[in-house]
Amino acid sequence: MRMKSRFHVKSGVTDLWDYLREPRPFRWTLLLVSVMIPVAGVLALTQESYLRPPDPPKVVFISTFAEGRTDAEIRQSNLENQRRKDEREAELEALRKQKVEAYKTLGRATGLDVDEMARKAAIENAREAAAEEARRKELYQAGQTVADDAE
Does the residue 36 lie in any domain? Predict the structure, then answer.
């Protein structure tokens, strides 16, 4: 079966021209829409875009320390900061103890056995601390294994 005999360009163009000449409503609008859809698709697919990498961040170092500090001054500053940190931790611990005593007083006033509750809380805290220590040891062991494998 020959393909050439079945399709004729001249007859196809003639049929299209006859169809367009018939008086139909919206024929030119539909023809325009029919042509614009593939044209828009081709234009959308042929547009080339280029995404440039973002600009590198501008880093500004702000230092509150004096330029040219000696090692002795740095050590003194570190000791002063540690002293202030220890004082804050001591104050927080004192406040925590005051809060615990206030709750114990309230518990005794309402008829609760606060000594038994404190004993159970101490056991639970010790259990949590042991679990945390075991988790830290496990992570440390895993880190050592990874470091050994990397070498």
Answer: no
Q: What is the tally of structural domains in the chain?
A: 2
Range of the domain at 118: 113-151
Is residue 121 located within the same domain as residue 131?
yes
Of 10, 35, 41, 37, which Cα lies nearest the Cα of 27? 35
CA atoms within 13 A on the CB side of 49: 5
CA angle 65, 69, 70 (to 5 degrees): 150
Q: DSSP string covering 16-58, please?
A: HHHHHHS--TTHHHHHHHHHHHHHHHHHHHH-----PPPPPP-
Same domain, residue pair 117 and 150: yes
The answer to the question of residue 55 being in a domain is no
48-76 residue pLDDT tens: 877 889 999 999 887 788 888 899 999 99
pTM exceeds 0.90: no
